[in-house]
Amino acid sequence: MMTRLNSKNGDKLSVLGFGCMRFPAKGGSIDESRATAMVRDAIEKGVNYFDTAYFYHGGKSESFLGTALEGGYREKVKIATKLPPFMVNKLDNAKKILATQLSKLKTDYIDYYLLHMLTDKPMFDRMVSLGVLEWLESLKEAGTIRNIGFSFHGSKSDFEKIVKAYPWDFCQIQYNYMDENNQAAKSGLQLAASLGIPVMVMEPLRGGKLADNLPSEVVKAFQSYDTGRSPAEWALRWVWNHPEVNVLLSGMSTEEQLADNIRIAGTAEADSLSKEELDVFEKVKTVMRERTKIPCTACGYCMPCPAGVDIPGCFSCYNDKYLLNDKTIRLRYMQTLGALSVKPANASQCKECGKCETHCPQNIAIRSQLKVVSKELEGIFYKPVMGIARKLMKIR
Ligand code: SF4
Ligand code: SF4
User: Fold this and answer.
1) Is the domain of 266 the same as that of 296?
2) What is the pTM of this model?
3) Of the ligands numbered here, which is closest to the C-alpha atom of 312?
4) Protein residue whose Cα sits closest to atom 4 of ligand 1
5) Is the shortest distance between the CB of 188 and ligand 2 below 6 Å?
6) At a CB cut-off of 8 Å and minimum separation 6, what does 102 contact?
7) How many angstroms is it from 305 CA to the middle of ligand 1?
8) 98-147: per-residue pLDDT in tens?
9) Within a 10 A sphere around the Cβ of 70, how many other Cβ atoms?
């Protein structure tokens, strides 16, 4: 297992982190004996970073992990878990959540603690105004929390604002060869690295979509470079090729996936892909582009939109619906476009001013395409349901 140094605190972190949201399941619950064996096998083979959250596996992931790490395993690993900001309306909520997490994880400290799924700067500001950051700092001084970070789903510009707004110990972003220009994007990865902030990467396979059911032309493009590598291995190697990435998180559900990922992580050097290998990704992206419905290149020239619409983000989700046959796309759309953030960026926010269209080098009829996105990814219930949810969560 290769490791990469967390330059902020000196931790030597395994390049492969165990994402604890997709343990093997049986009868709708975690298959505890298989999952425990996988967790311990991973540790024996050098995995030392486990990423869980309050909500994973319907709230059972943390307690399962706490039990799986009993018997001397806890001390060998770093635990990352997350505080859900939308459940925090006063500091006391956060205190109770952390107390529950420590008890579930059967530990008295959390190595890496994240504000879960920040989507825009006002969401971070709300945490500051409630005193959450100040409280986390006091916990860090006391040793209860070792590193303060955030995970992010949103637009490039929001990522930039959040990453610059606080001296973070680390951050966690969605990154893979299909998201090079989406969400935090490569520019966000490089910005974080330039600020000395370690980056953990989630969704290296886009929830498995870059491993299975890819269009046959894409599989052929990968096979044109004769290595016998699976599309999943190509995708993981692409992420690890970035020297700015500290840990790649993979939610592994089978023993085979674990063994395969550990094998690949054994040679996951940064800057190791050759020009020929990088050219394969260009071929793959060309095939992907040819199959995309809206020819948006995510250049961002149309941004910012005065109504707050994340135009490339909307088009990216829409394209994925068809390109990757992604059945979870509505959920991804909600996350990416900040359905529960202070300033949602979804397609139906468009006020049809037309400003964006004059800047688009692809001559996309942005207004009418956003209507299509809204119809297919929001439907008629999106606005009322989100309205109720926002009210209940006191999001203004
Ligand atoms: S037309 Fe819509 S998406 Fe384009 S800038 Fe105006 S409000 Fe934003
Ligand atoms: S300017 Fe056009 S191609 Fe560029 S991000 Fe906006 S919609 Fe996409």
Assistant:
1) no
2) 0.81
3) 2
4) 356
5) no
6) 108, 109, 110, 144
7) 5
8) 999 999 999 999 999 999 989 889 999 999 999 999 999 999 999 999 99
9) 10
Distance 380 CA to ligand 1 centre (A): 21
The answer on pLDDT for 396 being more than 70 is: no
**Ligand 1 neighbour 305 (Cβ under 6 A):** yes
Tell me, using a 6 A CB cutoff, whether residue 227 lines ligand 2. no
* One domain for residues 147 and 221: yes
- Ligand 2 atom 1 nearest Cα: 360
Strands (E), the chain: 3-5, 12-14, 16-19, 25-26, 29-30, 49-51, 78-83, 110-118, 145-152, 170-174, 199-202, 245-250
Number of domains in the chain: 2
Range of the domain at 321: 292-392
Q: Supply the CATH number for residue 34's domain.
A: 3.20.20.100
Q: For the segment 312-362, what is each residue's pLDDT rounded down to a tens digit?
A: 899 989 988 888 777 788 888 888 888 777 788 899 999 999 999 988 867
Identify whether residues 117 and 156 lie together within a single domain.
yes
In this structure, is residue 287 part of a structural domain?
no
